[in-house]
Amino acid sequence: MRHRKAGRPLGRNSAHRRALFRNLVTSFLRHERIETTEAKAKEIRSIADKMISLGKRGDLHARRMAAAYILDQDVVFSLFSEVAPRFQNKNGGYTRLIKTRVRHGDGAPMVILELTEAKKVEKAPKKERKQKKEKEAGTEETASAPAS
Hints:
Mean pLDDT: 90
Structural class: alpha+beta
CATH architecture: Alpha-Beta Complex
Number of helices: 5
Order of helices and strands: HEHHHEEH
Distance between the termini: 84 Å
CATH class: Alpha Beta
Largest sheet: 3 strands, antiparallel
Family: Belongs to the bacterial ribosomal protein bL17 family.
Oligomer: single chain
Number of domains: 1
Organism: Candidatus Manganitrophus noduliformans
Protein name: Large ribosomal subunit protein bL17
Helix content: 40-55%
Region (Disordered): 122-148
């Protein structure tokens, strides 16, 4: 019986499982979207939410706790400077699971794990975009003109 046993073993020993979760959380925070199995995604969702909560705190101790778990210092920096400020007005619910397909090899259900708040992509004003397109079209015409 598995009474009072939290978490999924995922067919690994505890050290391998911890390394797997650290790698997945680091990749997730780097790319802000990953595709993995449903069981793994459900496990790392809570860890990723805790890392974002640490990023929202923003103090030195929180930064050191996040750096102790996340494998890449650049990801820690982006967590505190880019990702966490997007969720400043939210109390949880930072991630979502989207079921996508069943993997052919073993029939595992696959999901996409992503952040709920997307990156803000700043678009140039319409006038500047139009001028840029015209400029690119002009350079293509000159490049394709035959040289004599």
